Amino acid sequence: MTTDPESTPDVLSFWFWFENNLHRFEHLEDQQEVLLPELGEQLQEVDEGLTYEISMPDEEGVRDLVISADGVKEAFPAVMLLIDSAPDLPGWTFTPFRQRMDLAGCALQFGEQELTPDDFYFWLQTEDGAIDLIVYVPGLTEENREAMMGASFVLLDMTLGEFDVTLKIRYIDFQPLPENPEAEDLQPLSALPDEFDALFDALNPE
Length: 206
What we know:
- It comes from Gimesia benthica.
- The chain is α/β, with parallel strands linked by helices and 206 residues long.
- It folds into two domains: 5-96, no CATH class; 108-203, no CATH class.
- It has seven helices and nine strands, in the order αααββαβββββααββα.
- The strands form three sheets. The chain has a four-stranded mixed sheet. Strands 1-2-3 form a three-stranded mixed sheet, covered by helices on one side.
- Strand 1 and strand 2 (63-68) form a beta hairpin.
- The longest helix is centred in the N-terminal third of the chain and has 19 residues, at 28-46.
- The model is unreliable at 1-7 (pLDDT under 50).
């Protein structure tokens, strides 16, 4: 259950806390075991559905704080309130929701398996103007389904972006990867962004 951020002062309280702890974030690698749980607690004072990601510093020393609803639609307003209220702080940018990433060459740990996005396949279909998605996961079983689905949702957010995954897809299912996915007209996950965008645009012409 999420809270209504409009009814609480916690958005401003979060930024007050963040700004007053900037000096600690300058030494994040040394303080992360204490500081990151505090950051999570402060965010969940705004809405218990919120989570975050912090980037490594870029070439100019700027970090990005991504505030995520973790795919919970009811927490989206809280994310936007936080971003809209974000102060202008040197060394920081603030981004709503997990964004699409270039996953070329990326390897992810799924339990005991190290997998790349091209190890996953997908099937898109439409019905009544809505988009449904099936993701085919290598090594998926009933025993590991819960853990693999959680990791697969994170991978989907990285592939399509959290906003599109949560608000533009009606139904998402995860199935075990068949032995010969190409023979069943499935496509590797790396093709999903272009295929999804083309399908969404066709269903929603300007």
